[in-house]
Amino acid sequence: EDQVTQSPEALRLQEGESSSLNCSYTVSGLRGLFWYRQDPGKGPEFLFTLYSAGEEKEKERLKATLTKKESFLHITAPKPEDSATYLCAVSGTASKLTFGTGTRLQVTL
Amino acid sequence: ETGVTQTPRHLVMGMTNKKSLKCEQHLGHNAMYWYKQSAKKPLELMFVYNFKEQTENNSVPSRFSPECPNSSHLFLHLHTLQPEDSALYLCASSTSYGADEQFFGPGTRLTVL
Question: Which residues of chain B does A31 touch, with a Cβ-Cβ cutoff of 8 Å?
Answer without folding.
Answer: 98
